[in-house]
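Good morning,

Attaching, inline, the backbone tokens for the sequence recovery test we're adding to the shared suite. The designed sequence is right after.
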């Protein structure tokens, strides 16, 4: 991986492309992505699982639909040799390093429209958190969610200010989530 700070948008496909650039004898044509080959669960580094994902293990590929209708790539559950993941990787033959969204969420959305039988989609509130503003600016009921995406980009300073004392009275979704992780309950602490 590059030594520079990795942005939240980094994902497995971008990692593969970095690898290709630094190993000149391998090309996109002969690169075999381990996630595509073996399947598994991909999570962004700021994605947290809240409950079992077992019900998705019998699907060839499962992803979440974001609040704006695009397909989110923060949580991907794929079977070995998933045809959807293979098609998505093939789309990177025309990779544009200046268009992260075009290569990931926009392309994933186009592929789900073209090949709907290859992927199971869930609305945003089930697979990952709907929008960063909801997380930081209000309280959102997330008990029905499988995972929560904390969208660290754009919120790093606020996240750095959270500690064991401040989280006790942080009256928003991120505060409730961290209290749940730390104390097993979401409610504001009295003291």
């Amino acid at each position: 991986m590059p030594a520079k700070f990795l942005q939240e948008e980094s994902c497995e496909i971008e990692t593969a492309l970095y690898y290709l650039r630094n190993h000149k004898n391998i090309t996109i044509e002969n690169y075999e992505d381990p996630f595509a080959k073996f399947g598994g669960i991909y999570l962004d580094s700021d994605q947290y699982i809240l409950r079992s994902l077992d019900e998705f293990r019998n699907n060839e590929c499962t992803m979440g639909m974001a609040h704006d209708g695009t397909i989110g790539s923060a949580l991907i559950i794929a079977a070995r040799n998933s045809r959807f993941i293979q098609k998505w990787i093939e789309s990177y033959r025309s990779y544009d390093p200046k268009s992260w969204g075009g290569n990931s969420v926009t392309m994933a959305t186009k592929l789900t429209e073209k090949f709907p039988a290859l992927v199971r989609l869930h609305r945003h509130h089930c697979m990952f958190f709907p929008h960063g503003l909801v997380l930081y600016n209000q309280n959102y009921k997330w008990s029905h969610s499988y995972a929560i995406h904390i969208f660290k980009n754009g919120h790093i300073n606020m996240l750095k200010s959270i500690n064991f004392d401040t989280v006790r009275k942080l009256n928003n979704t991120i505060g409730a989530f961290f209290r749940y992780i730390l104390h097993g309950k979401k409610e504001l602490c009295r003291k």
